Every structure is written in structure tokens, then in C-alpha cells.
Amino acid sequence: MSRVNRQPLVPGWGYWALMAACASFDVWAGANVDLWVLFMMPIGWAAWNLGRKAGCFLTVLTVGWLVLAALEFGTPHSALRYLMLAVLFKATAYAVVVFLVGLLRQQHVERVYVSRSMAKWG
């Protein structure tokens, strides 16, 4: 239970390495291939292990990366408003993943805590 209470806001090097790998693969794939789904892996992993705050932190960084990459390397969208609409939908999908994974983690921790306390007293 003490592991759950100590949740840092900034994720560790493993999350950054996975984010960098996803970003590199996204740049390598080019502007016409949209690999935004790959970023759900480190975001979900951070939300499960570190909590919702860390998942939200990585979501903000990922959305910023997607906007910068689209502006720097090009985008298949014809206008800036379509790009912003696509980024809004991606950010919403990331936020849903963070919320659901965080909720599952919370239920898992509560279930483990209850089963351990029942085993101790039972």
C-alpha cells in the first residue's frame, strides 16, 4: 500500500525511453502515416504504475510533441484547423486511456488491500 502513496509526477527513464522510441518511429514513418496510437503504451504504463498525474503529464508532452512534429515535418491535413481538431481528438483519446487505466489501477489496489486485510484477520 505504501507504493501506491508514493507516486512521483515526473516519470522515470523507462517511460522517457519508450516515448523517445515512439517519437522516433513516428518521425521515421513520415507525415502521411499517423502513429499516434503508439503513444498510448507509455501513457497507459505511466498511468498504471505512477498514477493519473503522471499519465496526464505524459499526455500533455505527447500532444505537444504531435503539434511540433506536425508543424516541423508536415501534416496531411489541408488546414491548421483540421490539424488542431485532430490533435484535440488524440488528446481526448489519451485522456480517456489515463482515466480508465487509473480507475482500473485504483480498483486493483483496493481489491488487493481488502484481500490482504481479510487474510490477516481471517
Which terms would index this structure?
122 residues, mainly alpha, single chain
Describe this structure in words.
The protein is mainly α and 122 residues long. It has one domain. Helices cover 78% and strands 0% of the residues. It contains five helices and no strands. It has helices at 2-5, 13-29, 40-49, 52-73, 80-121. α3 (40-49) runs antiparallel to α4, α3 runs parallel beside α5 and α4 (52-73) runs antiparallel to α5. It is elongated. The model has no long low-confidence stretch (mean pLDDT 82).
Describe, in short, the structure shown.
The chain has 122 residues and is mainly alpha-helical. It has one domain (2-121).
Structural classification: mainly alpha
Q: Count of helical segments? A: 5
Average residue-wise pLDDT: 82
Shape: elongated
Rounded to an integer, what's the Rg over CA atoms? 18 Å
| Spans of at least 5 consecutive residues with low confidence | none
Helix content: over 70%
Strands, count: 0
Order of helices and strands: HHHHH
Percent range for β-strand residues: under 5%
Distance between the termini: 19 Å
How many domain modules?
1
Sheet of most strands: none
What is the topology?
Elements: H1 2-5, H2 13-29, H3 40-49, H4 52-73, H5 80-121
